[in-house]
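Protein of interest.
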Amino acid sequence: MAIQQNTLKKLSELLGISISTVSRALKDHPDISVKTKARVKELASTLDYEPNNFAVQLRTQQSNVLGILVPTIRNYFYDFFISAVEEEAVKHGYSIMIMQSCDKLSLEISNINVLRRNKIMGLFVSISIETEDMTPFRKLQDSGVPVVFFDRVAEVSGFSKACLADEAAAQIAAKSIIEKGKKNVLALFGHPHLSITKLRYASFKNYFDLHSKDSNVTYFFPEQAEASRQLCSEIFKNKVPDSVFCMGDMILIGVMHAVHEAKLKVPEDISIIGISNGLIPTLYNPKITYVETSGFKLGQLAFKQMYASLKGNEEIEEVILESILVEGGSL
């Protein structure tokens, strides 16, 4: 780290007072007179002095930094989550450090070590596809660093979690499809290893099994945009389903590419519904009907949990963000 040009020593020399007096004046210590504080702060402002936060961190063994570890930053949901956390963090005097695992366990562990060395005060994390062992996160929490899982959460107890209403969101989507009288349904989900996929898949399937047994529902797990596009392109060559359910935004993007390539009209030739953060469905004409799972709102909830932990609340809790149906013209 570069050394500050205008150091405490320089302020001390120019003012003719001790370094410790300068330091305490800048921190508004009650032992320092109002007059001396004003002199120190005025000169510090003139010289554009900034406290050396790294040195403060070394002395106190703490920082004001909160870590955010996500599978990827190229995702609107995580963009909105990070935005909400950062907005709340700034209000409370914290800054954030963002890392991505790229869905690789080795990189996730490496990033945890980097965050630990930077002495983060707390960690928000959405786990990678490969993550099964929660020991690294438990060790971090045992060392006094609160961990809040969000979106892709640990399937074990002992951690605070900020979750989307995954089961309810899938039920809302299934109910909407059935109410529209659709019988030939293509349902697309994310990686089957993830808890979020397991919950949404089970809930969607159970709802159809209970309320529309005569429907023909085909399930696939394409995960991302290109895999979804390729899958749908092949399916559309043989028989076009009357409706497609997309578990997430990336799947929706792939489906819409295939729909456009096949020159299908929505909703005349095919109906679409998804679970979404909210931005992607608005980019199409007609707008896509979706069940809202807001990254921004989840970020606000997760920060509230984190802040309570940082202030001494040791309660482990799981909070759930309710989902709502946003009508478009695609179903």
Residues 1-6 have pLDDT under 50 and may be disordered. The chain is about 45% helix and 15% strand. The chain has three domains: 8-51, 65-164+296-321, 166-292.
